[in-house]
Amino acid sequence: MTDDVSHDKRALRAELRERRRICTAKERNDSEVGITANLIELATRTGSTSVAAYLSTTDEPQTRGFLHWASEHNITVLLPISRADGLLDWAPYDGEEENSDLIGMPAPTSEVLGPIAINDVDLIIVPAASVDRSGMRMGWGRGYFDKTLGSMEAKPPVYAVIFDNEYVDVVPTEVHDQPVNGIVTPTGIVTITEHN
Ligand SMILES: Nc1nc2c(c(=O)[nH]1)N(C=O)[C@@H](CNc1ccc(C(=O)N[C@@H](CCC(=O)O)C(=O)O)cc1)CN2
Ligand SMILES: Nc1ncnc2c1ncn2[C@@H]1O[C@H](COP(=O)(O)OP(=O)(O)OP(=O)(O)O)[C@@H](O)[C@H]1O
Question: What is the whole-number distance in angstroms between the Cα of residue 83 and the centre of ligand 1?
């Protein structure tokens, strides 16, 4: 059973990865404007003063416009750094130079805080490959966010950032998968009530 699900996830990820890869420059630009505006709206609406987010790669929904806005509005943003043990370290966004972490994701070069630093934020913005209408999230396949979210006792709102076509009826799920409270796309914010 689980093998079928992980096969389904892999196939779906490959398809979504390819769709992101073939996006045109114009599509990327247009989506960045919307994503930034909607992330700002979400942070404002939730009155967040401290947010966990991520440094996007070229193919992901772009987060840097939001990060820049947050730093200008005295909102602390923590960014993940992948660790070999499957947990995430966190480090504050400082607009300075970036590095690559051990799996080649962009990572901050500021002071490294341990995995529990995320417990203090008001809002968590996560990357995802796809989210379904019940809030189940499928990530990129290393379980980093499932472990992180699954280990938190009191979770603030968790929103995944995806493109509109990645919000689907159902994603394949396994027992360890953690749901999100909503999604942010280039065209809007959807809050999902089921599960939460
Ligand atoms: N910008 C960004 N930073 C992030 C994440 C992210 O998704 N985006 N992460 C979120 O967790 C963590 C890194 N997670 C990753 C998870 C998988 C792969 C990866 O290369 N996956 C394979 C597919 C594996 C499969 O299909 O089973 C691949 O894409 O080829 C890379 C990073 C931490 N930092
Ligand atoms: N809470 C957990 N404890 C231990 N292992 C876990 C946990 N969550 C996920 N895993 C393991 O991580 C691997 C990847 O899981 P999955 O395919 O659900 O990742 P994902 O949700 O796509 O990734 P991510 O959360 O990094 O974006 C699986 O082998 C799974 O067994």
Answer: 12
Q: 5-55, pLDDT tens digit by residue?
A: 999 999 999 999 999 999 999 999 999 999 999 999 999 999 999 999 999
The model's pTM is: 0.95
In this structure, which amino acid lies at residue 182? G
Dist CA 145 CA 138 (whole Å): 10
How far are the Cα atoms of 81, 105, 110 from residue 99, in angstroms, in the given order? 10, 8, 10
87 is in an annotated binding site: no
Query: Can you list the domains of the chain with their CATH numbers?
Result: 2-191 (3.40.50.10420)
Is 10 annotated as ligand-binding?
A: yes
What is the rounded distance in angstroms from the CA atom of residue 194 to the CA atom of residue 187?
22
Atom of ligand 1 nearest to the CA of 60: 1
